[in-house]
């Protein structure tokens, strides 16, 4: 357990992920303003995307397109997978970005509708008006 924590602390990407995630979570929990909650949600989503990018990074790897000695026209039929990056995390990251933007757009539209109805963005005031 200690080794895992020590190895994670040696990677600044994981530290940035944890800081962004906790910062966004703190903003979502501590602020009653709905816009600030959305900003916190955006930070949490961005930190998850950052984690996906961190996991998908591979040193000295290239795009997963056969080239050079691995190409179909080469005489060598062996492919070294260590030379290529895995495209799945990149595709998941792109999908997560699209979902993030769509979620934020719908959330902002809902917050605008709530503001027009209750004349407030404060969660506590809105809950008082609902009683």
UniProtKB/TrEMBL annotation:
On whether Hydrolase is a keyword of this UniProt record, the answer is no
A GO CC term? Answer: plasma membrane
Keywords for this protein? Cell membrane, Membrane, Transmembrane, Transmembrane helix
Residues annotated as coiled-coil are none
Origin superkingdom: Bacteria
| PANTHER family according to UniProt | ANTIPORTER SUBUNIT MNHC2-RELATED
| Protein's recorded name | Na(+)/H(+) antiporter subunit C
Gene source species: Stieleria varia
